[in-house]
Design brief:
The chain is an alpha/beta fold and 327 residues long. The chain has two domains: 14-135 and 288-327, Rossmann fold, CATH 3.40.50.10950; 143-281, Isopropylmalate Dehydrogenase (3-Layer(aba) Sandwich). The protein contains eleven helices and eleven strands. The protein has helices at 20-30, 45-56, 68-78, 93-105, 119-126, 167-183, 205-218, 233-237, 239-244, 263-275, 301-320, and strands at residues 35-40, 60-66, 86-89, 111-114, 140-146, 154-157, 190-194, 226-231, 257-259, 280-286, 292-293. The chain has an eleven-stranded mixed beta sheet with strand order 3-2-1-4-11-10-5-6-9-7-8, sandwiched between helices. Strand 10 and strand 11 (292-293) form a beta hairpin. Helix 4 runs parallel beside helix 5 and helix 6 (167-183) packs across helix 11 (301-320).
């Protein structure tokens, strides 16, 4: 499906400081049926209010999973009415994570949303080999960023789960990010494999892996996007920088997906854009049976809604072609 009518990018273009790309994403997602979502241990005011706000925006149908007394007390503290929503009583956060994962396996929900438990506690249940939500893919994380002054949204992966991924794991990280970009209607998907330089250097392993990933794309081992790498950050996203370096490709200067060498690089890049460039960052885990929204207390209300919108668009993309559901 094409991008929003009249907009240059899937989320629209924006002058510096205006976050209309996220607003356009939320508007686009609201045109689709809301996603039944297990909200895991929503026992903190921001987490619960964010889930209710997403429900009121017609993005999710929340199933609240947590200790009933704590959830009700949190609702009172947050000043939100949770009477319209199903509440599943469990004794503690670990039980909430286990029950939410079970709801997915039972076909009762199509997405997960992290509440006030630690990410590691939720993901431990997701990746369990016997009762978890693993697929044939490596699970990875994507940030979808709305950066003021930048014409297009950016996907950065992986900045939260895979610490030092191998080449084989990067294949899945790249493919997961491409699938997400397609679900968000990026057209075309342009993937830059980042390193410190745009030339292959045997002394810098990430440049060799970048070149290998691009060759794998040429051979059909990675599909659905244009790839180039290694690319430095400047010549990946800035056309003038790419021209100065004499780099001619369909990706250089116009990348909308950035694949980082490791978690440290990705985390620093995403946080630099967030805290220095005032970007909003919607976080989502991909490669599992269902999308998993990793919202943070530091997220703006719009960023929390955007995380839900991203998950909804991914669910929609899989609904349109069930074979896209990774098994």
């Amino acid at each position: 499906m094409s991008a929003l009518p009249g907009l240059e990018s899937p989320f629209g273009t924006a002058p510096p400081g205006a976050h209309v790309r996220y607003q356009a994403l939320v508007r686009r997602a609201r045109a689709e049926p809301a996603v039944r979502t297990a909200v895991v241990h929503p026992c903190q005011a921001t987490a619960l209010a964010g889930a209710v706000e997403a429900a009121q925006a017609s993005l999710i149908v929340p199933v609240l999973v947590g200790p009933r007394a704590k959830v009700l007390a949190t609702a009172t503290l947050a000043g939100v009415d949770i009477a319209p929503y199903e509440l599943i009583d469990v004794p503690h956060s670990h039980a909430a994570a286990a029950r939410a994962v079970a709801l997915v396996r039972e076909g009762q929900v199509e997405a997960l949303m992290k509440g006030s438990l630690h990410t590691d506690e939720l993901m431990a249940e997701v990746v369990r080999s016997d009762t978890g939500l693993r697929t044939g893919r490596r699970i990875s994380h994507c940030f979808v960023l709305d950066v003021p002054g930048h014409d297009t949204p950016l996907i950065i992966s992986d900045a939260a789960i895979n610490i030092a991924p191998t080449l084989a794991e990067k294949v899945d990280i790249v493919q997961n990010a491409i699938d997400l970009a397609q679900a968000l209607e990026f057209d075309p998907v342009r993937v830059a494999i980042l390193s410190a330089s745009e030339t292959v250097n045997p002394q810098v392993p990430s440049t060799i892996e970048a070149a290998a990933l691009c060759k794998m794309a040429e051979r059909g081992q990675i599909t659905g996007a244009l790839l180039d790498g290694p690319l430095a950050l400047d010549n990946a996203i800035d056309a003038a920088a790419a021209a100065i370096k004499g780099i001619v490709s369909a990706v250089a200067g116009r990348a909308n997906v950035l694949i980082v060498p490791d978690l440290e690089a990705g985390n620093m890049l995403a946080k630099s854009l967030t805290f220095l460039a005032h970007a909003d960052a919607a976080g989502i885990v991909v490669g599992a049976r269902v999308p998993i929204m990793l919202t943070s207390r530091a997220d703006s209300p719009l960023a929390r809604l955007a995380s839900c919108a991203v998950a909804l668009m991914l669910v929609r993309w899989r609904r349109l072609a069930p074979t896209r559901a990774i098994v």
